Amino acid sequence: MNRFDEERRRLVESLERMGTIKTEKVKNAMLKVRREDFMWRSEEIASYQDSPQSLGNTGQTISAPHMVAIMLEEMNLSPGLRVLEVGAGSGYNAALMAEIIREPLNSKEKKSQVISIERRDDLVKFASENIKRSDYSDIVSVCNGDGTLGYPVKSENEIHDRIMVTAAAPHIPKYLLKQLKRGGLLLIPVGEQHVQNLLRITKNNEYKLRTESICECMFVPLLGEDGYI
Ligand code: SAM
Question: What pTM was computed for the model?
């Protein structure tokens, strides 16, 4: 066991003790996916500090592990789902979601998919390389684009079982709501630039939306046509 393995185990156990990690699937994924493989090179030493870390000089961050755990628990993920993430950043959260939704080896049908959109070219490259090196490219695709318009761009079809936005939005982008399947769930921080509410929106089979506020949070801004300008 190397130093990072030990630090990862300690962080996960502490998040479990605090009640942030609630389920075995989130715990196992956070034990398996190596955050050090998603850190900006030379910053790996801070991999298991429970705080957001800068992605070089991009002005963007890899989110704090406790925030990642809160969001993963709220997403209610299971194998076979199609998930859209807005804000790939380092690719860490996409890898964790892939780990949770991956079908068992003996399953015939392989439907699980994570599409992660990122607006910055340098981070599309960074996240794609991290995903490939960590062996999640069979499930995760990192795409370049403005995630406020959904994926495919401006599609009005109900496509995604789950949508997770990992940047702070001024409001809920309309194409994300449209693209959420009935029975699906959208998680998004909404509010001002310095503090937001993490919202959990569910769409029932009659197309009714229900919004719950989970907690306060602080994310970098969601920029784009239906985000902050
Ligand atoms: N999920 C990431 C991870 O696991 O490392 C952390 C995401 S970081 C807090 C927010 C990311 O959202 C940044 O990489 C930023 O460039 C991206 N972003 C902001 N606005 C966006 C948009 N309209 N479409 C796609 N990505 C966006």
Answer: 0.97
